[in-house]
Specification:
The chain is mostly helical. It is built from 5 helices and no strands. Helix 1 packs antiparallel against helix 3 and helix 2 packs across helix 3. The longest helix is centred in the N-terminal third of the chain and has 18 residues. It is globular.
């Protein structure tokens, strides 16, 4: 997925959204299970990037959660692939697997 934002900008958006949800909606359930308007999500993402979030009191936490998802999807490289490759290269996965399942 291509994005009009740089990875650095997207990481800033993700950081903002995670902190926002943690501060405002720490006990909200099902954040990533609701369907929301993609138009609202893109608008919210642009507002966050522009530091122009109009009101923080009436923000739907499900939209913020979707902003996190699309921001991760829009990154130029897969984070999981990079982290997984490093874990496999270090041999640490064997220690974690053994600790968890053996």
């Amino acid at each position: 997925m291509t994005s009009k934002f740089t990875d650095e900008t997207l990481f800033g958006v993700i950081h903002f959204c995670v902190n926002f949800l943690y501060d405002k909606f720490p006990h909200e359930r099902g954040l990533f299970r609701s369907t929301v308007s993609q138009t609202q999500v893109r608008e919210m993402q642009s507002q966050i990037v522009g530091n122009n979030l109009k009101s923080r009191d009436d923000v739907d936490p499900h939209i913020i959660a979707e902003v996190i998802q699309i921001s991760f999807k829009s990154l130029s490289a897969s984070l999981l692939h990079e982290v997984y490759s490093e874990i496999v290269a270090s041999g640490e996965y064997e220690n974690h697997y053994t600790a968890l399942f053996c």
